[in-house]
Amino acid sequence: MIRKLMQSYYAKISFICICIVSIVTIMFSYLCYGLISRQNVAEHLNDYNILINNQSTALSSRLTSFSDFFYPVYNNPEAYAALCELYLSPNGSLPNRTTDILLDTLNALCASDSYCCGMLLLTRTGRLYQYDTKYVSLIPLNFVRTTFRFTPYQTQLITDSQISELSSDLDLPASHVYGLSGTLFRYKENLLENLGYMIALYSTEDFSNILSSSGLENTADFVIADASFSVIYSSEGNYGSGDIEAILAQPGQDTINNARLISVSGEDYYVSSLYQNHYGYYTTYTLPAENIPLSMAQTLLLLFCLLLPLLCILLYSAVFRSSGRKVRNILNSMEIVGRNNLSYRMAVPKGNDEFASITHSFNHMCDELQKNVENVYLFEISQRKSELYAMQTSINPHFLYNALEQIRVQILSGDRDKASRMLLLLSKMYRYQTRRNLFISIAEECAQTENLINLYSYRISDCEYEIHADNGAKRYGIPKNILQPLVENSFVHGFSPEQENALITITAAFPEGAEEILFTIEDNGRSITPADLEELREKLLQPVMNRDEENGFALSNVNNRLKLVFGESACLKLSPGEDGTGFRVSFSIPPVLPENLAESYTT
User: Fold this and answer.
1) What is the C-alpha to C-alpha distance for residues 43 and 199, in angstroms, rounded to an integer?
2) Are the CB atoms for 266 and 247 separated by under 8 Å?
3) What is the pTM of this model?
4) How confident is residue 385, by pLDDT bands cut at 50, 70 and 90?
5) DSSP one-letter string for 265-329
6) Pairwise CA distance, residues 429 & 451, whole Å
7) Starting at the edge strand that comes first in sequence, how are the strands of the sheet with 517-523 ordered?
8) Cβ neighbours, 10 Å, residue 125
9) What pLDDT digit, counting tens, does each position of 245-287 carry?
């Protein structure tokens, strides 16, 4: 197949060009794919960068405003006194009223923040209490010394694991929490005395809600960790401190939109982190590179790269198969015309390509060649033959015999007036035929046609005719003896002597909006069969040299003379009458004066 497509020189050149274009296109597509892929990753990571920034901002805002969290305590003397009494009590035993004030105060503090789910109260002497928001109770716990060190008068962030280490009796109010600690103090002799620490417990749902409200798929692990990499929050529930430390310490292969591309256990991840210097915590995300979906542009580019070579080859094959058939058709047509078959015409292909132009030019060349050959023959011979035959068909010997016989019958019967009128018609027609000019006005042609109809009417007792010619069209020219053969055709082939209400109608007018004169000759005689009509149409399409003079020559004669004078558009159009009966002939000619026709014909 490839060998057939590569036979011609231009086919080889085209195939090489297609290959070069395909290769260059694929190379540029590869480069564009890399740029689009990087842009897609940057846009995708930007959404995750916004999320960790929102999480960091949420935590920073809570830390910054944590001092205001205890404002109701210091602003309420009773509440402040109750807390101080609890912290200073040696065994934690308080009067009932003090306990009620203390519980109301803690309940108000927790209710001020929807994410605050409990409180821990740690005295300086090591007593630990848990406030349970569910039961509104203050529960003493067994305090366990931990590695975590509280710093007085400073807001501190406590992780989930560090809170759990404070006591084995601690019941966390949520699956994962984190704590913010503040110092409870009092003034003693103008000095600050540290009484202990108040730890507010917060649910990590705040950070989960930030993720869910973003609308992003859960494809990355978001982690918040303190400076020692203890996990405060993990969207995947991974609270091992070693994992985040190892990931942040991993060297990056590339950086896109503040995210480093790292490789762990053979898999690629994008990692980005924000470090809050003031409070000392990290906000990070870890996104597997495979979880970044392809953009529509990447998908289309991949499809383009895959389909382009295939489409190029298929297009190349289809084009050269089609062009090969058209070239062979042109060569075969040239061979047929070369065998002197001037009537052959190529079928015009659909479309408007170069082969259609070649076909039009080829057919036009054949038309001009055939026209030149016919002109040589027709201008020398056919015109004289047509003019002589027009006279013979107008007053042929058989018609002349019948006319003279009818005149004799009228004389013998004593109707000399009718005989005289018939002789007058014959003399007018002979005088008209002896004129040598080839072109006359439409008015004269209609008048001579009327004489012919009147003469034929003596053979058919019940015959009527109508001639309608626009006054504006009568002055224009037409070849002589154009209408008479068409009218005689109706009397010879259409009407029968016994026919009643015989009617022949002739019109010559400008149709509305048209610039040519339309002639119609219609009779209500015998209807022509579809087979005979098709045969007559085929005879009109045949070249002059191939026409049969024994059948339909009158129509061919008229058709040929019209086309010689006015062009191909003036050919005869044959059809049944308007009501489906009879016979109708029509043609159109441009409005040209007789003297102008004669001048152009002679030149």
Assistant:
1) 40
2) no
3) 0.51
4) very low
5) TTEEEEEEEEEETTTTEEEEEEEEGGGSPPPHHHHHHHHHHHHHHHHHHHHHHHHHHHHHHHHHH
6) 7
7) 463-469, 502-509, 517-523, 583-589, 573-575
8) 13
9) 778 777 877 888 788 888 888 888 899 989 998 888 999 998 8
